[in-house]
Specification:
This is Gfd2/YDR514C-like C-terminal domain-containing protein. Pfam families: DEDDh_C (PF21762). It comes from Lophium mytilinum. With 381 residues, the chain is an alpha/beta fold. The protein contains ten helices and ten strands. The protein has a single domain, classed as 2-Layer Sandwich (Nucleotidyltransferase, domain 5). The longest helix has 23 residues. It is globular. The relative contact order is 0.17. The protein binds zinc ion (ZN). The site of zinc ion has 7 residues, from α9.
């Protein structure tokens, strides 16, 4: 593999590569698809805790959404079908599990959505193991290629990966925090940044929300790392097909460009694969009729006050399960009377109904600096 520069390709070069990989070169160019897997990555951090807090800026979630372009080779471009081939993985860092906020971004979108993964079940991860888990996802064995090496010790062949991101500089900073450098992955052949690809004289650095609006995508639960990774991939594909349509107006009047429908169908497919999606708590992996059992077996150190739930770090033995913590809902206990009041991690000295916790006292909570007294603001640990 030629040396790779781990910075996003410039706009023109990136758009050309994208066009080639997706086979959107029009009739004039011989069809020669570079064979690759797109892997979109999005990292969330605790940027909303006070700056003096030990966990300020810590990575809290990593989302990776992949699309194997071998699965979309047949037929005309079809964004609805392409989106249904996307696979998403959502890691939550167990040592920041107790952190959450009610703050919103300047669009009014809640900054905390770690418990609202829309495309499957979240996975709890240890900080020191996350690097290898990400590398595993970015190293995909190529089953179509024969292995070389000796018969007793065949050498594995891996698929080429084109990394996709939105606003590269931010991700790079956080990757250093989890000791991951893309050089050591060994499969990444190029980097595409949707902010670069979709930039224009009017919007030099367009935000993800703006780009999604241009493609009629109605995002649910932004700022969840894996949701945003899926949306970034949608923007990448949608932008490429839009350019293809404008360059080839005669051949693509009938193209299906409905990304939103594709995402809805993707969620239905995932729900069927993982045991359903609960209409009560919205989580994947169980149906509503099993929600009582689900809540009672998956609630650990969580408190319900009708608005906010604090989620304490889980015991290590449970961290490898793919079950996500349930979402807060005031109706839980009334709908399931047998459930009873949930145990929770708030301090006994806190008044009823108040769930904020003195960080220094939180058992097993985020690393607090000795001697620091933290204010109870609108973030919670
Ligand atoms: Zn449920």
């Amino acid at each position: 593999m030629a040396p790779v520069s781990f910075v996003p390709l410039p706009k023109g070069e990136g758009q050309d590569l994208l066009k080639q990989i997706l086979g959107l070169q029009g009739d004039a160019t011989p069809i020669d698809f570079p064979d690759a897997i797109f892997a979109s990555i999005d990292i969330e951090s605790a940027s909303w805790v006070p700056k003096h807090h030990a966990s300020f800026g810590d990575v809290t979630e990593v989302g990776i959404a992949t699309l194997d372009t071998r699965t979309i080779r047949n037929g005309a471009p079809n964004l609805c079908q392409w989106m249904q081939k996307v696979e998403a993985t959502h890691f939550r860092l167990n040592d920041t599990a107790g952190l959450r906020t009610k703050c919103r971004d300047y669009h009014g979108t809640p900054l905390f959505a770690a418990d609202k993964f829309e495309f499957g079940c979240s996975t709890w991860a240890h900080r020191n193991e996350l690097k290898n888990q990400i590398i595993d996802l970015l190293r995909v064995e190529d089953e179509a290629k024969l292995s070389s090496g000796s018969e007793s010790k065949p050498e594995k062949k891996y698929r080429d990966v084109v990394l996709v991101t939105h606003a590269w500089e931010n991700e790079d900073k956080y990757l250093k925090q989890i000791n991951l450098s893309y050089e050591e992955v060994g499969t990444i052949v190029s980097v595409l940044d949707t902010q670069v690809l979709e930039s224009s004289p009017f919007w030099r650095q367009p935000g993800l929300l703006r780009l999604m609006g241009g493609l009629s995508i109605q995002p649910l639960h932004r700022h969840n790392g894996a949701n945003d990774a899926v949306y970034t991939l949608a923007v990448l594909l949608g932008g490429a097909v839009n350019r293809y349509r404008s360059e080839n107006p005669d051949v693509c009047k009938e193209l299906n460009c409905n990304i939103e429908e594709g995402l809805t169908l993707l969620k239905e497919t995932i729900a069927a694969e993982v045991g359903g999606r609960c209409q009560h708590c919205d989580l994947f992996g169980h149906e509503k009729r099993f929600c009582k059992k689900w809540l009672s077996t998956n609630m650990r150190g969580q408190a319900v006050d009708g608005k906010v739930v604090t989620v304490g770090p889980r015991p290590v033995k449970n961290l490898t399960t793919k079950a996500a913590p349930f979402k807060a809902d005031v109706k839980d206990e009334s709908e399931f009377p047998g459930l009873g009041p949930a145990k929770h991690s708030r301090s006994d000295s806190d008044p009823p109904g108040k769930v904020s916790v003195d960080l220094c006292k939180a058992p097993g909570g985020p690393r607090a600096k000795k001697g620091k007294k933290f204010q109870k603001l609108d973030w919670i640990a």
